[in-house]
Write a structure and sequence with these properties.
310 residues; alpha/beta; Purple Acid Phosphatase, chain A, domain 2; 8-stranded mixed beta sheet; 6-stranded mixed beta sheet; 9 helices; 14 strands; 21% strand; globular; binds fe (ii) ion
């Protein structure tokens, strides 16, 4: 097959995809499944021909939060916790363990894997009469206070969870005229980098949610084709996928909230696989992910690597 000359349509689309991927050549190349050099060449041609003619489509194509941010960080250790569902008051014991392990291991990165805010009062679900759900401003101020308890780390990432999105959605639905006046959730937490997903060392994806059910972790690594950590299900588990490409891991990061907290009254206290805990992952100097480690509650105490954390 001979290579036809690139059409204007493809060149415009090249610029659009570049914008959509936060102006990252590597990520844009991956989206269209060409190598980096090919995309870089296509982009150069497009920019030379269309430099001052950037159609509105680029703005329309942009997501409110990035779709994916890639980070190269070999020889690093990360702590990943999700579903804190902050209301008010003091943090649960499992969150205190999250802080303690992050400090003890001197982690290079902390990932809040979504649903840090609960947003009960701006939920589309009916309110429960007599519920003590706090105002959004209380949740945000409480979250700020709790997040300040974490040690500093080189990478501080936050994947958008469906509950986190409630706040921006509420503003968009009920006060869109004020959307430039009221700051977004991300603007309340400038120390954190927000995205729907992060990819670390091109071998590990972290996102709030993907597949559900009892085999969520298994299906996530099966269908993503790489190591992956998700929250949302509040299940805490690691499954190994072994195939001709070697081993890879599906991780569900449990919950940093107490499953019997008032945030979960809607579940009526029914039996559930929700489990308090979090995960730690380590990469070697080649960016290979080591088998993940979990912290979970045993006998009412958080345990990590066989020892009580608190
Ligand atoms: Fe969620």
């Amino acid at each position: 097959m001979t290579q036809a000359k690139l059409s204007a349509d493809v060149l415009i689309d090249t610029l659009r995809i570049f914008e959509l991927n936060n102006r990252s050549i590597s990520e844009a190349a991956r989206q269209v499944n060409v190598n980096r050099t090919t995309f870089a060449h296509r982009l150069k041609t497009a920019q030379a021909l269309l430099s001052d003619d950037r159609p509105q489509i680029f703005d329309a194509a942009r997501w409110t939060y990035p779709r994916m941010i890639s980070i190269d960080a070999p020889k690093t250790r990360w702590i990943i916790g999700s579903d804190l569902h902050v209301w008010s008051g003091e943090p649960p014991v499992i969150y205190k363990a999250f802080i303690a392990v992050a400090k003890k291991l001197k982690v290079d990165g902390i990932i809040l894997n979504g649903d840090i805010i609960d947003g009960a009062r701006v939920s589309r679900h009916p309110a429960i009469r007599g519920s003590a759900a706090p105002k959004i401003e209380v949740e945000i101020e409480t979250a700020k206070r709790w997040l300040k308890m974490l040690p500093n780390a080189q990478h501080k990432l936050w994947t958008m969870g469906n509950h986190d999105l409630r706040i921006d959605s509420y503003i968009a639905s009920n006060a869109n005229e004020l959307s430039n006046y009221i700051i977004s959730l991300a603007e309340h937490f400038p120390a954190w980098k927000f995205s729907f997903a992060f990819e670390i060392n091109q071998t590990f994806e972290v996102r709030h949610r993907f597949r559900g059910g009892i085999h969520g972790a298994w299906n996530n690594t099966l269908h993503s084709g790489i190591n992956i950590a998700t929250g949302h299900t509040h299940q805490l588990q690691v499954t190994a996928m072994r195939d001709r490409n070697g081993s890879r891991w599906g991780i569900e990061t449990g919950s940093l909230a107490d499953p019997f907290g008032p945030q979960f009254e809607y579940a009526e206290g029914a039996p559930s696989r929700a489990q308090m805990g979090f995960a730690v992952v380590t990469f070697d100097e080649d960016g290979r992910m080591m088998p993940p480690e979990l912290c979970e509650m045993v006998g009412g105490r958080p345990v990590f690597r066989g020892d009580h954390v608190l």
